[in-house]
């Protein structure tokens, strides 16, 4: 099936959107070749660098992604930063279609004075730090304070609160990085205030995360009772998921407190433009698209957070990526996506990268990193001890 004339698609970004788009393409069309280009030497995006260490069950999707990466008509090329090492236009010349699935690596900021002060961090950086994202390795948060404040009430805010308050005994057998574990073991934080700009009915988290928070061992939830006056009366008219969430809040609502030492703002992520050739909506921070087709750019598609904005769980990203794959396959079938010419695919891109001194990390190279991390983790009773440095990752990958 693997022939020079087969349709060739490349995907930019090796997170859930990239892998789910690839999965649907190779499963549905028996002749398509799919290559995934990922900036980091390691795959899986926010499943590795976002999902909380105490949610190992969520990370099981990595097994499905691994199967896709090992599919005969799919390949993974890590350590390739699209927009820098190779342009989107060069990818378009090498492939019949390019799918942009590079997530939302920017940070929404508050735009208020004091945001840059020491002791104020974004949740994105803090999460990246405890999950081993190389760029956040040196964050070194100073947790010698009693009260931490989190601005925002979504699932990421609750992840951060849980990590700050969880007994280290709960975390020590997860894949949290050792430096984060050591810092948390010394932490003086005893109280975390989770602040929202609106009321309990606008809480942005899901019930699973709220339940975990209010049931955390050694922790007592406190809520502003005055926020809950009138709410009980409204329960009947709320849609079922919101009703369950609010009932849980009402059950634990009591009086609250003041004051603060350490602040995390958790008000969301945002996508960034990666290449001037690709249209970008600077207000919504997404690539403008219709059902995954990038507007006014034939042969260019998008999926995941960069397509619809940084909301939704992995399952939402999966459905959205399958939709984009369906759109692309439909365009191939209808002939609106031209697959009649022979394209070089990864052979063409590899030549470009070689000239620029960029050596990709293949999936088999990642497997060496994976087994080194598992080995280091085993010694500490953890599923893995992540490598924190890109240089070290590359060394392990290529030996
Ligand atoms: P990403 O996962 O961000 O993947 C994008 C990939 O593109 C990354 O690997 C990145 O390195 C790569 N990339 C970026 N720029 C380039 C470039 N220029 N060239 C090449 N590659 C590039 N969902 C759940 O279901 N359960 C959870 O418990 C959960 N926890 C979460 C916790 C946090 C802190 C966050 C932020 C999200 C969480 N989610 C969770 C949501 C889930 O992670 C997202 O739905 C999903 O990861 C979005 O997938 P994506 O592929 O669009 O983006």
From TrEMBL:
Domain FAD/NAD(P)-binding: 8-167
Gene Ontology MF terms in the entry: oxidoreductase activity
Keyword annotations from UniProtKB, A to Z: FAD, Flavoprotein, NADP, Oxidoreductase, Signal
Required cofactor names: FAD
Binding site for FAD: 17, 38, 46, 82, 305, 312-314
Listed SUPFAM superfamilies: Nucleotide-binding domain (SSF51971)
Residues involved in NADP(+) binding: 153-156, 197-198, 209, 312
PANTHER family: GLUTAMATE SYNTHASE 1 [NADH], CHLOROPLASTIC-LIKE (PTHR48467)
Protein's name according to its UniProt entry: FAD/NAD(P)-binding domain-containing protein
Gene encoding the protein: FDXR
